[in-house]
Design a protein that fits this description.
Radius of gyration: 25 Å
Shape: globular
Strand content: 15-25%
Largest sheet: 6 strands, mixed
Structural class: alpha/beta
Strand order of the largest sheet: 10-9-8-11-13-12
Low-confidence stretches: 229-244
Distance between the termini: 73 Å
Length: 336
């Protein structure tokens, strides 16, 4: 039965009253053309500290962004109270396109990837030469994540007063990764911070490392005015340090143009999200040789064209070995 006549008017249509008194939902999203640009410095339980015109602003994500989350390093658009005064809150209404993304999963069986840092230029992988012992498998995994996410790697070796760097340098020498060797005494009283800072000038650098390797001590030396609590102790039984950095934080680099992103210490670095085809992009001397590879080639199988490419003298065999070692980390646990 027709409820309304043939020629109905808007006033004839009954509408359900809005008991909450708020505006009805709409799929039309405001453009917010007057929104201010900001940089996400840290995220803590749904509240984001953003830098707007050199002024820290507390903000929250607007509902219209849905499940899309902002992370440290994101360039965002904000509206609302941008005064930065106590108890004020702005809204993040837009997350700009990212130039790079550092991701990790809890383990290799976890399908849920976590974005650690956005828009970083460089990943500084911090490893101690002793106390705790170096974990090459974890370093390999961080390298794969850097190559996959579009970040340039930097290897920073700490505690050289306890052990020499020779074994680590031999293992990663064929990858042509820039590196810096430091000791605790040099960080506190010497020029080690200056040598590290030379690799950071003009860049956004995310620092990642196993707990207890001295990562926060290094960050404190680079940004002394923003000192964070250091671990100071490594468990004698497990060789693990305590987590002292509980959330990622972007800090302006002292005496240089750049940013340092201090991240919580990691004990695992899952790579379930990594596409092996993107890792090869970090090996420009090997990439042309993949043109003859079979479809979905793992680059470590009998029909891989890279073997012939290297045999013809187009690339160093050590480079192919390094590539395959990195790709194999997706099937190999860090402790293996």
């Amino acid at each position: 039965m027709r409820r309304y006549g043939k020629h109905t008017d808007e006033d004839d249509i009954r509408s359900r009253p809005n008991r909450k008194g708020n505006r009805p939902r709409t799929n039309i999203r405001p453009k917010h053309e007057d929104a201010a640009e900001g940089l996400v410095l840290t995220v803590d339980r749904g509240r984001l500290t953003c830098l707007v015109d050199d002024r820290p602003i507390m903000a929250m994500k607007a509902r219209e962004l849905g499940r899309k989350a902002a992370v440290v390093g994101d360039r965002v658009a904000l509206v609302g109270d941008l005064s930065g005064k106590k108890d004020t809150l702005a809204r993040i209404v837009r997350i700009e396109e990212r130039t790079s993304v550092l991701r990790r999963t809890a383990d290799d069986d976890d399908p849920y990837e976590r974005v650690v840092v956005a828009n970083a230029d460089q990943l500084a992988i911090v490893t101690a030469l002793a106390d705790p012992e170096p974990r090459p498998r974890l370093i390999d995994r961080c390298l794969v994540a850097a190559y996959d996410g579009g970040l340039d790697p930097l290897l920073v070796m700490t505690k050289s007063d306890l052990a020499p760097p020779d074994k680590i340098l031999e293992l990663y020498g064929d990858l042509d990764i820039p590196y810096v060797v430091t000791s605790r005494e040099e960080l506190e009283n010497g020029n080690a911070a200056d040598r590290v800072r030379e690799h950071l000038d003009g860049k956004v650098t995310a620092f990642v490392g196993h707990s207890g390797v001295g990562k926060t001590t290094l960050v404190n030396a680079l940004v002394p005015e923003e000192r964070r609590r250091t671990t100071g102790r490594v468990n004698a039984v497990t060789g693990r340090g305590r987590h002292t950095t509980t959330s990622a934080l972007a800090l302006p680099l002292s005496a240089a143009d750049g940013w340092v992103v201090d991240t919580p210490g990691v004990r695992s670095f899952g790579l379930a999200h990594v596409d092996p085809s993107r890792v090869i992009l970090a090996f420009p001397d090997l990439e042309p040789g993949t043109e003859g590879c079979p479809r979905a080639c793992s680059h470590d199988e009998p029909d891989c064209a890279l073997d012939e490419w290297v045999a013809e003298g187009h690339a160093d065999p050590a480079r192919l070995y390094s590539l395959r070692r990195l790709l194999a980390t997706r099937e190999r646990k860090e402790g293996d």
